[in-house]
Amino acid sequence: MNSTHCKKPLASLLMTGVWMLLALQTQAQSSAPIPLIPYPTSLTAAQGAFVITPATAINAAPGFEPSVAALQRLVKQAWGKPLKTTTASSGKQIVLQKDAAITTPEGYRITITEKEVQLAAGEPAGMFRAVQTIRQLLPPTVEKKTARAQTWTLPALTISDAPGYAWRGIHLDVARHFFSISYLEKLIDRMALYKLNKLHLHLTDDQGWRVEIKKYPALTAKGAWRTFDKNDSACMREQKDNPDMAIDPKHIVQRNGKTMYGGFYTQQQLKDLVRYAADRYIDIIPEVDMPGHMMAAIHAFPDLSCTGGSQWGELFSTPICPCKESTFEFAQHVFTEIMDIFPSEYIHLGADEVDRKSWAESALCKELMEKEGLKNTAELQSYFVKRMERFFQSKGRKLIGWDEILEGGISATAYVMYWRSWVPDAPVSAARNGNRVIMSPGNPLYFDYPPDAHSLANIYNWKVVPEKLTAAEAKYIIGAQANLWTERVPSENRADYLYFPRMLALAERVWSRQLDFASFQQRLPAHYNRLEALGVHYRLPDLSGFAGQNVFVDQAILDIKKPIPNLVLRYTTDGSLPVQRSTVLSKPLVIKQPGTIKVAAFTPGGLRGDIYALEYKKENYQQPVATLLSRPGLQCKYFKKYFLNTGGMKSLEPDSQFVTQNIVVPATVNAPSFGLQYNGYIDIPETGIYSFYLLCDDGGTLTIGDKEVVNNDGQHAPLEKSGQIALMKGLHPFALHFIEGGGGFTLQLRYSKGSAPATNIPDSFFKH
Ligand code: ACM
Description:
The protein is α/β, with parallel strands linked by helices. Helix content is 26%, strand content 27%.
């Protein structure tokens, strides 16, 4: 514990106090919102502040012990000793009281005056959420063991708050790569800070079985360990450019002369983790994924499958066999132990991505299907899920499955976790069937998809409830969660980078009723400081003022805009990765030679942001074409077909053609998968270097004249790529090709001239 604060001279302490008051006044005077995330339902600022000193006591009604402990931990971290508790009715106090009138689950009220802090809730979970709001009202330094202040100041205000959705979740796949209990504790604590309440652990998969099952020790003795796979090799390749991609050495062992990767949790470790989470009012939802994704288990117990083994099929591995009673015995024993560890009301069966070929070929399955009147293997899968649900229900638990459980028919009591963005009607039909639905569509909630400058807005502005549902049907959508699949997430730092700050946007999306992205962005920088104090390896905000591919005619000026002022930019020109010792980029850089500049932002604490490799090429201004064409807009060819990339449209006849005024996808383009080719001219108003930013899901390419300016092709989640071109004033041939594979598309093209910020392209630029 740090005790240096005791030795701080009085003058310095007074200065800290004065500084804090000044800071508070400044905050009250400016219109900046108090930086709470998620933002409360109602907040009214008042004059003055409550000062917490070591003499402040906590006066709590019975039943709020975990909240008292959380408050005590907060200051103990900094002061080395917790706040005292009291039952006296006088003195400067933080009062935790029950208010039966607060009936919304997790709801709470806070009143802070100069004399007292009052926290009120109808139930313990609400009180704990209130304490997290107090935590965020304290400066980020409170999170550090080395915090120095003797007093902490809370601004006078009243808050009344309750969540918009009951399910506010985060998922972690601990099977593909393994994560330590200490990382899970950190994750739980960070979720608590942002009022998230469900941690879904994907405990088993083809690549590893991570939970001790006492009846079947081979599941972990064999199934928890593997040699490096192709994803590990990909991580190792990427490690050269990004140290976060190094495989965590904690989980690498030498066994019988072989290097093995893996690990598992003992039941006791998980029970302790459940308690740790429960103290923060977070449920841990265990997933043991079956009947598919069971290769690790089948390798330990080959009889579990219909074929006596498990191989990779076209996409997925051989599943367990639902046509043998011994499979159900196994599954029920496993889940009995799982339920013993996890008291959660919900147990996740997985049931996604099943290769049912081995069932179709099995004589046992043919017999069972005849006996049970099952028409196909989808119904056979449904038979498995329904039987497992009856077993869960016999133990008082509710079954969750991925949305594939809808396919062969589903009981109305199962909970559906929606993930397949390309099946947009799945949550609609589930809700209409009376199933509770948890939304976690790949776009935007698969956090393993790499983040970019748009991800926060995409999450924040995403509609939790599908538009087709009526208000009555919408009640079946109980919330949302973000998933982190870890095939390519080999380290805790990489997981942090993918979770943060996207987790904050999700937290506000599912908690707050009034959403305001501009306000969220204003509140976010204070949280970067808090995350850094907590040791979170979060993703720094994006730099701007350049394109991925840059060009110059005589010289270029690299003038990077810093998204937050305290970042330091550092760069290299020799191909090496920028590090803390690299040259500081403190003013615009003049570039006269072709080459690559690698630049990254660093926080004062040393955290490094994304490395940008900016290529610079010398080129001449492209000459305009002489044409008399002057019809507004672009010609657009529409192909109703599935394409892997834009090249697939080449030499095909379009299904139809029309004119658009800009790069937009008209409502008449409604095939589930399609391709579009926009062709015409772009009318450049002034000679200069132009940057184009192509954001698309799926692929797109932009060609101006004979130069491919941006290649953002292939099937992918929304991703922006940019490129530059030197253009003379006048008309230039323009072609943008775009494909949508299914599951919702994004298409946006913006431009900028010189170092101006990117904006939309005016309709008047386009001619055909
Ligand atoms: C999933 O992503 N297979 C649920």
